[in-house]
Amino acid sequence: MDLLQRSLAGIFIYAIVLPAVFWPFNFHILQPQLSLYFAVAMLFISILRFLHKLCSKRLYQYSPSLWMMIFASLSLCHAAILSTIFTLAIFDPRFTPILHVTFLVMGGIASGALMALTPRIKLALANLAILVVPSIIAGVVVEGKLPFASMLVIYSSYLVVLGCRTNREYIRSFRIEQQLDAQKKELEQLNKMDSLTHIYNRGHFNTSYESHWHTGARNNLELSLLLIDVDRFKSINDTHGHLYGDACLIHLADIIQQAVPRRTDLVARFGGEEFAVLLTSTGINDAAMIAERIRAKIESSPFTLENKTLPVTVSIGIASMVPVKGENPNKLIEAADKALYQAKSSGRNCIKID
């Protein structure tokens, strides 16, 4: 699509270039039919290219190869029409009044088209060949026009070298841009992740939660939240050490992540030994089933590290509501936190619904 943007100016220049050449030298008066035919042909191709530009997004999504074939065909049609005029200017006496200005235009069009089509160097060189090769041949064949042919050969050779070098620079810049973009996305992803458990962190949870709240309010979609707290985690750290506690959190994060398979849902480390699970388009009953599945799976999966096996349990608070526009988004979090407190107060290793 960058190719289209680079050549967009050419669509309009090609539409007016022949009138700009014909009219100042009264060629349209000397040869009205020829002027009309060539000018209309150039305008018609420009209109087709403009229509192609308008349909580019859909056409490219449908078939990039078809998009490219149409683009190349129309570009080469413009080149063929101009090449015909340039060639006629050499051997047809009717075009003698515009011979010199035609060659000036040829130089400008050839260099401009080459730079615009640089991302596709083969197309750029094909376009250049169509523009200048017939004129070079005509200059060699027609008596007295060899200097024109010689100048075209030298200028075309320069353009070929320049085009190939520019293409290499374009490709190198494009690859660097791709690498930078990939690095940027990687950094953005890392900024979303908790460095210990490798699930989403609190910052990303806050951003995503805000977005889901507004989406729910706009579309009347129910939103459920599970707040999960590791029971007696402080004693785990005190007894077995913080490294053991960190490994335990990684173990629990993996279990919770596996228990919430939908890509639209969000699992995050909420802080310390707390985890949060945000369930989109989910009612309280389904949320309670998921919470119980998480609780039971953790209870039945004791944590083992360096021959130390430790039963671990969690308490889960559950809240669900349909967001209302203008209402404080923290209302759902406060409700889930209240339910979590009830679960902790009820002996732990259980789920509670606010």
Oligomer: single chain
Instruction: Record the strand order, biggest sheet.
Output: 2-3-1-6-7
Structural class: alpha+beta
How many individual β-strands?
A: 7
What is the terminal separation in angstroms? 53 Å
- Taking all Cα atoms into account, the compactness measure Rg is 35 Å
Strand content: 5-15%
Number of helices: 13
From the spread of the alpha carbons, the general shape counts as: elongated
Query: How can the largest sheet be summarized?
Result: 5 strands, mixed
Counted up, domains total 2
Low-pLDDT segments: none
What does this molecule look like?
The protein has 354 residues and is of the alpha+beta class. It contains 13 helices and 7 strands. The strands form 2 sheets. A 5-stranded mixed beta sheet has the order 2-3-1-6-7, with helices on both faces. A two-stranded antiparallel ribbon has the order 4-5. Strand 6 (314-321), helix 13 and strand 7 (351-353) form a beta-alpha-beta unit. Helix 7 (121-141) runs antiparallel to helix 8 (146-192). The longest helix is centred in the middle third of the chain and has 47 residues, at 146-192. It is elongated, with a radius of gyration of 35 Å. 32% of the residues are buried.
Key structural traits:
354 residues; alpha+beta; Alpha-Beta Plaits; 2 domains; two-stranded antiparallel ribbon
